[in-house]
Design brief:
Strand content: under 5%
Number of domains: 1
Helix content: 55-70%
Shape: globular
Length: 349
């Protein structure tokens, strides 16, 4: 049995070696890579609630579902922080012109391509005016607001970098973060739902990610982050079991204090844990993490396919919902890994 287990593990890792993207840099951050992989799993869990709505008769499980979703809340702020974590070090070694040439084109191509795909899927369900309004408001599909917002952050990155390197840069970003957290609901207004403007309230989180990349995470900082993460998840479970997001709104908001608390503490915890990974494990995690953005782009397609074949009676079952989540994640990662093997097409993810 032990021999068979070893053979299975060896075969499994050989399979991963073949399907995962290559081009691994010499210095690999396994902790940051794992944070991205776990975060996309959490985002998929959040979005499953939009596709597989819990039936009324499953009221006894609603608290469990609420806690499951609540514990995934940290992932969206963490993605913003991680984007800054990986973006700002690149700005230290290249000019703004070179940065735009290397970074913006690919994200813009992916944004427009998948916006067109999801818009085509909605033809017949919405008129031209509604489609145009969705594009102007950065929502060709519900999840693409984040891609538009991220594109705006990449456009603003060189300016943020200059501010952060200024004498009062960190203090300016801290003051801006306090303004955003004090009134997070203000940024839901229509005024801020347009390209570039949608990115502005997320600038402090983005800049904080760049600051984390410059700082060394000591064991004391790492352990404190893990303690704050444990307290955060305890708080989230309590809120989710006692009325959900609305019970602590706007405190419990992506732009509120809870969003920053969860995003920062969990991100630092993963970065700290990364120091205990072997070089091979870090390399494998890094390669898998290169699929994450593609998974974010394609997973609604996979959920649409699952929605057509999964009986609605399963939507309210905890184990069935976990199986749906596992299936969507596995299928999405597999689809993106296959697309990455196809010339030209791979540029769309």
């Amino acid at each position: 049995m032990q021999v068979n287990s070893k053979r299975f593990s060896a075969s499994f890792f050989r399979l991963l070696e073949r399907i995962l993207p290559a081009n691994v840099p010499k210095a690999v951050d396994g902790g940051g890579a794992l944070a991205r992989i776990v975060a996309i799993g959490c985002v998929v869990m959040l979005h499953i609630g939009s596709y597989f709505r819990i039936p009324a008769e499953a009221h006894s499980c609603r608290t469990i579902f609420a806690i499951m979703s609540g514990c995934c809340f940290w992932a969206v702020p963490a993605f913003v922080i991680l984007s800054g974590y990986y973006t700002f070090p690149a700005l230290s070694s290249m000019s703004a012109t070179e940065y735009y040439r290397r970074r913006i084109g690919g994200v813009l191509r992916q944004t427009l391509f998948w916006s067109a795909i999801y818009t085509a899927m909605s033809l017949g369900k919405a008129d031209a005016a509604a489609i145009l309004s969705n594009w102007l408001h950065c929502r060709p599909l519900f999840h693409l607001w984040f891609v538009f917002m991220l594109l705006g952050l990449y456009v603003l990155a060189p300016a943020c970098w200059r501010i952060m390197n200024g004498r009062f840069g960190p203090a300016i970003m801290l003051c801006f973060a306090i303004v955003v957290m004090s009134r997070p609901e203000m940024w839901n207004a229509d005024l801020w739902q347009y390209p570039l403007l949608i990115s502005i309230p997320y600038v402090p989180m983005f800049a904080l990610g760049g600051l984390l990349a410059k700082c060394r995470i000591t064991p004391v900082v790492g352990r404190c982050a893990m303690a704050f993460s444990a307290a955060y998840f305890a708080f989230v479970c309590w809120v989710s079991a006692n009325g959900g997001k609305g019970a602590a709104y706007p405190f419990f908001h992506y732009l509120g204090f809870a969003g920053l608390w969860g995003g920062v503490s969990v991100t630092i915890s993963f970065a700290y844990l990364g120091r205990f990974f072997s070089a091979s494990a870090s390399s494998l995690l890094f390669r898998a993490s290169k699929l994450v953005f593609g998974v974010y782009l394609v997973h609604p397609l996979v959920m649409t396919a699952f929605e057509k074949v999964v009986p609605t009676a399963f939507y309210g079952n905890v184990l069935a919902r976990a199986a749906i989540w596992c299936g969507v994640c596995t299928a999405s990662f597999t689809l993106v890994a296959v697309i990455h093997k196809i010339p030209f097409v791979k540029r769309t993810v």
